[in-house]
Amino acid sequence: MNRFSSIYLPLATAAIFLAIWHSMVRLSGSDLFPTPMEVVHGIRELIEKGLLLKYIVASLFRVSWGFLLAVLVGVPLGLILGWFRPAFQALNPMIQILRPISPIAWIPVAILWFGIDDTAPVFLIFLASVFPITVSSMAAVQNMQLVYLRAAQNFGVKGPQLFRRVILPAALPQIITGIRIALGIAWLVVVAAEMIAVNSGLGYLIIDARNAGKRYDLVVAGMVMIGLIGLVLDLLIRQLEKFDEVKWGYGQR
Amino acid sequence: MKLISTTFLCGALWLALITAMHGSLNLKWFAFKAPGAAAETEKFRIGFLPVTCHLTCPVTDFINQQVEGQSSFDPVRFSGWPELKEAFLSGYTPATFILAPMAMALREQGVPLKVVYLGHRDGTAMMVHKDSKIFRFEDLRGKRIAVPNRYSNQRLLIFRALKQAGMTINDVELVEMPPPDMPAALYSKAVDAVTSGEPFMGQTEIDGYGRVLYLTKDVWPNFISCVLAVHEDFIKNDRETVQRLVDGIASSGKWLDQTMEHRMDAAKFVSKNYYNQHPRLLEFVLSKPPDRVKYTNLALRKPDFEEIEALAIEAGVIQKDVIFEDYTDASFVPDDSLVQASSYEGLKGGEVPPRK
Lengths: 253, 356
Hints:
The structure holds 2 protein chains of 2 kinds.
Chain A: H1 2-28, H2 36-48, H3 51-83, H4 85-98, H5 103-114, H6 119-142, H7 146-154, H8 159-188, H9 190-193, H10 202-211, H11 216-238, H12 244-247
Helix pairs in contact in A: 2-11, 3-4, 3-6, 3-8, 3-10, 5-6, 6-8, 8-11, 10-11
Chain B: H1 2-25, E1 44-48, H2 56-68, E2 73-77, H3 81-89, E3 95-99, H4 100-108, E4 113-118, E5 121-122, E6 124-129, E7 144-147, H5 153-164, E8 173-176, H6 182-187, E9 193-197, H7 200-206, E10 210-215, H8 216-219, E11 226-231, H9 232-237, H10 239-258, H11 260-275, H12 279-287, E12 293-294, H13 302-314, H14 324-327
């Protein structure tokens, strides 16, 4: 029964979705929007040309580096801002101003600063994911239960020890949640980031297919691949939540 | 801590793996270099869009590769005008194909550029939906027309046609739209008419829902939309290279207009290696009719630009008189009749060799 609900149930939903998609295209008589089969043929064509692997690797490369930089900057920054009140007061308004700006708005700046190599998309992905990580790390420290700190004080734990033994472990579950959300966002902006004239990547595939005349099957193929890889990424990053260090922080349901 | 050490280890391994794969698949880091091969000279980049207005850019690159073994420049394909312009402004592309009024406006705003050569003549159409009741320009009253950019000559052309029809800009609604999105917009009747460079107009005709309202050659003969612009510093520092570039562009333009076989060859290799479009698109717009777009007679002429200037001021894209002698440098090809067609013999029915 468990197997049924965890595997067959989502598959059935997907099958119904595809059937509706197919019949909607047929009913509307559109010859521009592709049916699911045409998208599968499009994906096969990309595989045969050897482009699909290249594009997936390129997108994952940019997202990996942008996201890694965001974690390296965001987590320490968030911890510092969460712990030191003056730092929070000084920087938080600035962060809240920069946070809502869409990466698309940064595209012109990114081109002017970095040209159109891999650096500009990495920068855009970094920008999109650094703020959620910073804010969640910051909140994690600020919302820490005081009882941990009091207990630590009673035992005379101070300085770096306090940070390593108490603050970081207490904040970790919420930090991991922030990182998971940020990875989703990083992958989300890959299309926008690759709108710059890089010449590879799944976002580029979509832009390129629009240039190629009536190739909307490839546009949808790019969308499907982005969705599927997003699913895999989320499943992978969820594994982090299974570690004992953070498991205690999540609800038991 | 198990979590942190495991994450770091996996993360580091993943980064190394994905970087190596990206390096080998997309950046060709590990490509074998023949020991005897000449050191590759530093190439400069030229920006272009996949439209017929910029066709001479990839054609020159391809012919250079076939005739001389390597090209002196690296054509970089963009998808939209803003990105193309920004890459040019940042110096990433020291030379670029660009809309003539956009080049004028940039120059007016203090960007040190020089227009050195034309990209093409004609090669634009206004398309309406085949079911629509629009048969003359006057029928566009109250309709919505998509133009590629406010700086596009397609928009200026509408100003010109409005005046001839005794209408004003308030009689039509103009929307800006990237040319690749125009066929779908016309198909779904989101707009009543679309106008941009080919092959996006020809595409609506091939797919059977677009009808030509006018080709530019019929309403504004020898229409210019795009020009080749070069940074002033580039001309100052390396005039020889710019000369070689313009000579190459000029001779491949002549080559394109020499025979229909040349055009069909160009449609094949440009579609495959540069535009990534179906070859029949370019084949269609380069042949039906053959003078739909032209690549000869591309030297800069003052009267052409003065007409564009006047319309651009009227359309509000430039403010005051820009001076032809200031934003152009016509000295690279002073006389068009002296341009020799490229000696490239064409594909001769063979396969398209891959781009280097």
